[in-house]
Amino acid sequence: MFKKLIVLSVALALLIAACQPSSPKTLTVLTHDSFSVSEELVTAFESANNVKIAFIQGGDTGSALNRLILTSINSDAPEADVFYGLDNTFLSRALEQELFEPYAPQALADIPAEFKLDQTNNVVPIDYGDVCINYDKAWFADQGLPLPASLEDLTKPEYAGLLAVENPATSSPGLAFMFATIAEFGEEGWLNWWKAMNDNQVVVVSDWETAYYTNFSGSSGKGPQPMVVSYASSPAAELIYAETELTESPTASLVEPGMCWRQVEFAGILKNTPNRKLAEKFVDFLLSPEFQEDVPMQMFVFPVLPTAKLPEDFVKASQIPTVTGSLDSSLITQNRDAWVNAWTETVLD
């Protein structure tokens, strides 16, 4: 009898333990520094999937990708399970490194073809934004200086030292803007434009955060440059998050043809992740209506899901270029590194 009681007690203990929820797994997501999502959405995902998400911010997109490549060399265990924030300027480089495992979420069927730039589905599109030049409205009004109507105008003496740009070797908006100049002036003429801009005292910094929050006068009111390479949706952030209520944004974008580049951001499941199923669920989450409708107010970019609703203030202050620069992806693949090296020699050396 005593032995039977022991056996029953052990069996009962095992049954109770089996009924208890297991400890949550950890899903690691590598992102760029500008990634943001509402905390309640993350909490809901964690609760629904018994998981804890660990976000690693890896710098600007270029820096985050470099980190991922370096940590993946000669390693069967990736630093993260999912990478979010890869964009079309770095897409070919990432795919060349074979960092990802293909995955086609069900929601992909609803995404417009213009955003599906990787036919292998190693990465899937999540959001997009237009890289353009932002300007400080008050500064130009006070100076009585007309706005530049083209990239060519920026080489004129009256705009000397007024533009801050990001280094294309380390910054995705910087790389996107460099591509915009190649699309505008062609492979034969784009470096001549940068030489002229160098002579005209263009200011170069390493990343978007520095360019926008330190150099740009339209954000802090203290920066020395009244123009900065940013996004056509950045003025919406200035309007929505102004310390005092405003009727219009203090900044705007130059969206004339030839001055902007459409940037598409992607997410991908890293090769050899031990958490494949959870990684798939996270990518599904990124394309869910809840996340897609959270994107505009969190990162001030547009969702790729056409049915996602956009906030009124976001639409009000965002500008959409009628024409954005474009280059064939194969051309970018063949020339990206050489172009960046040429830019570096022209502008920094």
Q: So how many helices?
A: 13
Q: What is the class of the largest domain in the CATH system?
A: Alpha Beta
CATH topological fold name of the largest domain: D-Maltodextrin-Binding Protein, domain 2
How far apart are the first and last residues' alpha carbons, in Å? 88 Å
The CATH homologous superfamily of the largest domain corresponds to Periplasmic binding protein-like II
Oligomeric composition of the shown chains: single chain
Summarize the structure.
The protein has helices spanning 2-19, 39-49, 61-72, 91-96, 137-143, 172-199, 208-215, 217-220, 234-240, 276-286, 289-299, 312-317, 329-347, and strands at residues 25-31, 51-57, 82-87, 100-101, 124-136, 163-166, 203-205, 227-231, 251-254, 261-270, 302-303.
Task: Give a verbal description of the structure.
The chain has 349 residues and is α/β, with parallel strands linked by helices. The chain has 2 domains: 22-128 and 264-310, D-Maltodextrin-Binding Protein, domain 2 (3-Layer(aba) Sandwich); 130-262 and 320-347, Periplasmic binding protein-like II (D-Maltodextrin-Binding Protein, domain 2). The chain has 13 helices and 11 strands. It has helices at 2-19, 39-49, 61-72, 91-96, 137-143, 172-199, 208-215, 217-220, 234-240, 276-286, 289-299, 312-317, 329-347; strands at residues 25-31, 51-57, 82-87, 100-101, 124-136, 163-166, 203-205, 227-231, 251-254, 261-270, 302-303. Strands 1, 2, 3, 4, 5, 6, 7, 8, 9, 10 and 11 form an 11-stranded mixed beta sheet that branches. Strand 6 (163-166), helix 6 and strand 7 form a beta-alpha-beta unit. Helix 6 (172-199) crosses helix 13.
